[in-house]
């Protein structure tokens, strides 16, 4: 993946972030998931008053793609910060453990790229295996581990 695509995914994640529903935490997250077929799926976090049903931006993007029959992915860009933090000035926002496990369900940890960004010029790229070492995946249940 080239730098131009990384920056495009970051820009798409910022667009997704605009739709975050965060009346409780005021912490808005956006994600842009690149499928192997070239399509980008956006997701934002969606909070709920009882917290447990809250859904993260990353899972929203994955579930949108999977619900449309897509199950092969190359990368995801994630942005997140408190409301009012100017674009490019926030901190990097790594995915929670549940989102990392969802990524592991559908992605090869050796090749899937996770782009953590504060802006198009301030980002870091990690492989999923770096974010979720010693992971438990589908192959553990199939006996192919």
Would you write up a description of this structure?
The chain is an alpha+beta fold and 145 residues long. It has helices spanning 3-17, 57-67, 97-106, 128-131, 138-142; strands at 27-35, 40-44, 73-82, 113-119, 122-127. A five-stranded mixed beta sheet has the order 2-1-3-4-5. The longest helix has 15 residues, at 3-17. The model has no long low-confidence stretch (mean pLDDT 95).
Instruction: Identify the overall geometry.
Output: globular
Q: Major β-sheet, in short? A: 5 strands, mixed
Note poorly predicted spans: none
User: What share of residues are in beta strands?
Assistant: 25-35%
Span between N and C termini? 28 Å
Nearest-angstrom radius of gyration? 15 Å
Q: What strand order characterises the main sheet? A: 2-1-3-4-5
How much helicity do the residues have?
A: 25-40%
The number of helices is 5
Return the string of H and E elements.
HEEHEHEEHH
Total beta strands: 5
What integer is the average pLDDT? 95
Which structural class matches the secondary elements? alpha+beta
Question: Could you list some keywords that capture this structure?
Answer:
145 residues; alpha+beta; five-stranded mixed beta sheet; 5 helices
Outline of the structure:
31% of the residues lie in helices and 26% in strands. With 145 residues, the protein is an alpha+beta fold.
Write the layout of secondary structure elements.
Blueprint: H1 3-17, E1 27-35, E2 40-44, H2 57-67, E3 73-82, H3 97-106, E4 113-119, E5 122-127, H4 128-131, H5 138-142
């Amino acid at each position: 993946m080239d730098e131009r695509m990384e920056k495009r995914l970051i820009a798409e994640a910022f667009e997704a972030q605009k739709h975050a529903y965060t009346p409780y935490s005021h912490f808005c997250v956006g994600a842009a998931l690149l499928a192997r077929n070239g399509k980008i799926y956006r997701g934002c976090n969606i909070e709920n008053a009882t917290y447990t049903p809250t859904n993260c931006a990353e899972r929203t993007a994955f579930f949108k793609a999977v619900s449309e029959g897509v199950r092969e992915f190359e990368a995801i860009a994630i942005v997140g910060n408190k409301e009012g933090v100017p674009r490019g000035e926030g901190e990097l926002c790594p995915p929670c453990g549940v989102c990392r496990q969802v990524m592991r369900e559908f992605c090869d940890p050796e090749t899937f790229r996770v782009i953590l960004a504060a802006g198009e010029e301030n980002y870091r790229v990690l492989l999923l295996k770096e974010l979720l070492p010693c992971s438990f995946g589908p192959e553990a249940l199939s006996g192919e581990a």
